[in-house]
Amino acid sequence: MTSRQNPLNVAGEPRAFFGRRSGKRLHRGHDQLFRELLPELEIALPEGVLDPRALFENPKKLTLEIGYGGGEHLARQARTHPEDAYIGCEVFTGGIAKLLQAIDEDEIGNVRLFTDDALKLLQKLPDAALDEVYLLYPDPWPKTRHHKRRFVSPLTLAELARTIKPGGKFNFATDIEDYADWTLAHILRAPGFVFAPGKPGSWHEPYPGWEPTRYEQKARREGRLKSFYLTFDRRD
Hints:
Layout: H1 28-36, H2 38-41, E1 62-66, H3 72-80, E2 85-89, H4 93-106, E3 111-114, H5 118-122, E4 130-136, H6 154-163, E5 164-174, H7 177-188, E6 193-194, H8 214-221, E7 228-234
Parallel strand pairs: 1-2, 1-4, 2-3, 4-5
Antiparallel strand pairs: 5-7, 6-7
């Protein structure tokens, strides 16, 4: 486990990398899923190390998605690869409800959920526990004084490097060029990762099999027509 102190807010409490947890009140169907389905899927952190593979039946691959939004990408991946296991981290109740609905309607059985700060989960995982991690369209916290709340930081990258297997992948997508530059600058200083961009401009090409999330669709409607799809390899 890392010995580095987590960042603190002005009250001396651990700083969260997210904003609000809830928006509109959940309608009856979603509220029922929160009461009945979420307890079956929600990950409770133990006092010691969490063995994520114990949550599933002999998965071929274990993937973590941090901040899955409405869960479109996570649900699609889980449906397409039933032999693999997926953990989704999200704190916003509306997004959790949407993913719970997809899991319920499509009878998806290879997803578990963590509903608090993803850093807390990472710090409980054993070394080399994950095959792949996705961080798709995270909150860019555009104001300079809020940059410290961006998820990508030396602390989180150290935890990702520790928990991703050698040869595994960290995928990061954003439509905000400043956040792409921020992430590349941090990755280049992170000893655990390697960035091999391929041909010029290839980082604007979506991942294989990619389908736009609702956040990407919103970006296009708002005139942000270019995204960055970056993949970083965990150094062997």
